[in-house]
Amino acid sequence: MSSTRTTPPSPAGTGRSVRRPGDRVFAGTAKGAGILILVILAGVAAFLVVEAVPALTAPAEDIPGGGGLASYIAPLVFGTLLAAVIALLVATPLAVAISLFIGYYAPRRIAQGLGYLVDLLAAIPSIVYGFWGIFWLAPKLVPFYQWLERDLGFIPLFAGPASTTGRTMLTTGLVLAVMILPIISAISREVFLQVPSLHREAALALGATRWEMIRMAVLPYGRSGVIGGAMLGLGRALGETMAVAIVLSVSGGITFNLISSGNPSTIAANIALEFPESSGIDINTLIASGLALFVITLAVNMLARAIVNRRADFSGAN
Amino acid sequence: MSQTSTAPAPTGSSAPAPRRGERARRLPNWSPWAVFLGAAAVVGVLWPVFDLNIALFVLYTVVLGTLAVYLLTRTVEGPRRATDRLVTCLVVSAFGLAMVPLVSLVWEVVSRGAARLDGEFFNSSLVGIVGEGGGAYHAIMGTLIITALTTLISVPIGLMTAIFLVEYARGRLKRAITFLVDVMTGIPSIVAGLFAYALFAIFFGPGIRLGVMGAIALSVLMIPVVVRSAEEVLKLVPNELREASYALGVPKWRTIVKVVIPTSIAGLGTGVTLAIARVVGETAPLLITLGITNATNLDAFDGRMATLPVYAYYQLTQPGVPPQFATDRAWTAALVLIILVMGLNVVARLISRFFAPKTGR
After folding, report:
1. Positions of the region Disordered (chain B) (predicted)?
2. Interchain proximity B161–A280, CB inside 8 Å
3. What pLDDT shows up at residue B44?
4. Residue B324: what pLDDT?
């Protein structure tokens, strides 16, 4: 709208175009849709706060568990962060390697098809990952956990007793890692492809091997993109619900023991499991925990976007 | 492989003699493959000794082969090329490792889900079903209705926002909306569900479950996806087309409707289809806004509705007394869901291939 108003070279023309009702209606609708986005985001925060207030103000013994809101949410936040961090530690190196493979190692002709295969992982619904995790991955990991307990049990992470179902925090982290793999690899692939070919050719011309070329030209250029992609993956892993709800066997509070069957739940999975059977103040408590999740993911995503956008600014200048 | 084989012959004459000798020592191109075959043979011989399974066999072969390639290259070609080969092995194994979940997941779902992929599954609901039989007609219809409703809400808002961002917005408002749309793509799906619940609970009282609540929750997830893809596509429309239209005295809104959108219709179709594929498998928001029911409910403004992902979840977690039948139904529902999502992805690719604007000759 502003552009039609602020172009005065031909007074007659602009005068007419401003008064056209079609233009005004259309521009107004478009602007309204844009502002609606802001309203929705503010509405999500506002309605969650309104529904969470009863839990925030309720006496401690009314909250499930009887210890007040903070002690109810704390293990959930811990579980959420733990599962997401495991996922991130597993997925990031793997995703970088995959994007390097697709960008620089695979034969050019099939590289795009391989990239599409990795993207397919992103298209699979999260509940199907839950099915796969509990029926395929978890049983297969049981011998591995028994080995971890037997031979590496002195490390607190693998203290055991090893779960006999495999529904552990480590399994959950691995399922989440598979789910965020395509997100991180898609963004790393994109930034690796933007590396100026002159940089790469210069490195090769100096006699660098392929790995030396990647280490000197590709990785420094793509670093912030990879970090941003990893944080977007982290945001997804933090909020992932159904896969965790199905796979993770929940009992007990905060523990770093990754291979036992007593694990803290995650915020999102806890909501999905408890919400259908809850009423009254329990619902408000769950919404309060959802508000905590919203704030955490919002912070992570804003940081990630800021990093990715800063990199975009740099590459524009190049 | 190809780069290691390019022999730097021309520089040889001017280079000092010892380096020339060093460079001449090269392993043939097939040597890594041979090493890996050898490693597989060694591990295969050891199979009965250590009581291996297929996963451990592949793992040991890859580890042994990688080590052997590294040591061999290091002794023959030197440490730099050895590191290069090592990284190549690692990168290829990483890709192989990433394919394991995809292949095993698809295999698992197809083999377990095919059992109940029959007419009854698509024709009957779960009313009066205890144990064998029954289907997901009510859940499939619910998914279709909710998805259609979501699309109906999200596409106009998303499209108009994209148009606003590309054609009208300037300065701070544009930056703010772009940033917030990016942030919105990261909202956890369960939070979107809680938002829809909180919104309706305030007006209709607690415990409310409606189809339209699910559609609103899914819209929160779908709108940013539509905006992002539509924005990318609209930006690709050449400015010359807009200017030509303005030069003919066409108003801006008619330029957008008659020139910009038709030019980018293929990309818009692809983006919307992919956005639908993204929300059709969402479970968590529907679990808390729609609940589940065994009967067929086609009215999105009246009571609980079943949807395919939630149906699969409840069939798996609350299977009833002989769990086998419900578990089978759950896997078939997962299979139908995957087919639906993959089908939408294929449709999206076909749209972008066949409806792409004809480029000038």
Report:
1. 1-22
2. no
3. 86
4. 86
Could you tell me if A166 and A137 are in contact, meaning their C-beta atoms sit under 8 angstroms apart?
yes
Kindly list the distances between the CA atom of residue A291 and the CA atoms of A104, A278, B223, B247, B289, in Å, as whole numbers in the listed order. Answer: 43, 17, 21, 52, 17
Is the minimum CB–CB distance between A105 and chain B shorter than 8 Å? yes
Residue B12 has pLDDT above 70, yes or no: no
> What number of residues does chain A have?
318
What's the angle, vertex CA A267, arms to CA A265 and CA A269, rounded to 5?
65
First to last CA, chain B: 39
Omega into B18 within 30° of 0, i.e. cis?
A: no
What residue in A sits closest to B334 (Cα-Cα)?
Answer: A128
Cα A306 → chain centroid: 15
CATH fold group of domain A62-317? MetI-like fold (1.10.3720)
Q: What distance in Å separates the CA atoms of residue A206 and residue A204, rounded to the nearest whole number?
A: 5
* A159/chain B closest Cα distance in angstroms: 23
List, run by run, the mean pLDDT of 10-residue segments along chain A (318 residues).
45 51 89 92 91 85 79 91 94 94 89 85 90 93 89 83 87 94 90 88 92 91 87 90 91 82 89 88 91 92 80 49
In chain B, the percentage of residues whose pLDDT exceeds 90 is: 48
- Tracing tokens 């024709």 back to the chain, one arrives at B123
- Nearest chain B Cα distance for residue A298, angstroms: 7
- Contact between B355 and B266 under an 8 Å Cβ cutoff? The reply is yes
Residue A76: the pLDDT is 92
Q: How far apart are CA A45 and CA B142, in angstroms?
A: 28
Q: For residues B80 and B90, give the distance between their C-alpha atoms in angstroms, rounded to a whole number.
A: 16
Question: Residue A16's pLDDT is what?
Answer: 47
Q: Does A47 touch chain B (CB under 8 A)?
A: yes
- Under an 8 A CB cutoff, do B283 and A286 touch? no
- State the Cα–Cα distance between residues A157 and B264, nearest whole angstrom: 53
Q: What is the mean pLDDT of residues B132-151?
A: 91
Residues contacting B16, CB < 8 A, separation 6+: none
Task: For residue A193, give how far its alpha carbon lies from the nearest alpha carbon of chain B (Å).
Answer: 17
Write out the H or E segment, with its range, that includes residue B338: helix B323-354
Report ipTM for this prediction: 0.85
Contact A27 B168 (CB under 8 A): yes
Compute CA distances A150 → A12, A138, A160, B59, whole Å. 86, 18, 9, 20
Q: Say what the pLDDT of residue B56 is.
A: 84
Please report, for residues A50, A204, B21, B123, B317, the alpha-carbon distance to residue B26 in angstroms, rounded to integers and kept in the order given: 71, 18, 10, 66, 59
CB-nearest partner of A34 from B92, B165, B207: B165
Instruction: Tell me the count of A-B CB pairs closer than 8 A.
Output: 281
Q: List domains and CATH numbers for chain B.
A: 2-115 (no CATH), 122-354 (1.10.3720.10)
Domain ranges in chain A?
A: 1-57, 62-317
pLDDT tens readout for residues A173-194: 999 999 999 999 988 988 888 8
**pLDDT given for residue A151 in this prediction:** 86
pTM of the model: 0.86
* Residue A289: predicted pLDDT: 93
**Distance, CA of A138 to CA of A149 (rounded, Å):** 16
AA letter at A32: G
